[in-house]
Amino acid sequence: TRELEGEEIGREASIISARSAVRDALLDLQRRQATPPGLVMEGRDVGTVVFPEAAVKFFITADAGERAKRRWLEMQRLGLKPDLKSLEREIQARDERDRTREAAPLVQAEDAVRIDTTQMNIEEVVENMVDITLQRLSARM
Q1: Are strands 113-116 and 58-61 parallel, antiparallel or unpaired?
Q2: What is the CB-side half-sphere exposure of residue 51 using CA atoms within 13 A?
Q3: Residue 47: is it exposed, middle or buried by C-beta count within 10 angstroms (0-12/13-18/19+)?
Q4: pTM of structure
Q5: Is the preceding peptide bond at 36 cis, omega within 30 degrees of 0?
Q6: Residues 67, 78 contacting (CB under 8 angstroms)
């Protein structure tokens, strides 16, 4: 629903997910999702905590201003009227909260490929990820 896509939900999810009890309760549930042939999962601690042994990991980033602009456009398409500067402040606050939380802080896994999408469109990001995935998987065979 629209409510799930709103900034308030994202903000509250970031606050609630900082609690160790919440993270512990969800960890087994998340791991059980990995059934053959595999899965694609996104999240701020998926490569470091949930699936540290994953064959391919990406750390996808973009500067806060660009992320706020993308979110602003997405919300506009939903008929909402967000404030761009407020979105950017909220994104920066969430990043800071997630980087500094005690339980599973936001960090790049050592073996993750960092992709800065600030200057990329979605097609370029996906193409880049597919190429890297194919290279990594073929190297393992």
Answers
A1: parallel
A2: 21
A3: buried
A4: 0.82
A5: no
A6: no
Token representation of residue 86: 């407020």
Give the model confidence (pLDDT) of 39-52 as tens digits: 899 988 899 999 99
Evaluate if residue 80 carries a pLDDT over 80. yes
Distance CA 98, CA 13 (A): 11
Q: Which residues pair with residue 116 across a beta bridge?
A: 61
| C-alpha distances in Å from residue 114, one per residue of 15, 30, 48, 57 | 25, 23, 14, 9
User: Does residue 61 contact residue 115 with C-beta atoms inside 8 Å?
Assistant: yes
Give the CA radius of gyration of the chain. Answer: 16
What is the token pair recorded at 46?
Answer: 């998926």
Look at the block and give the residue holding tokens 């512990």. 24
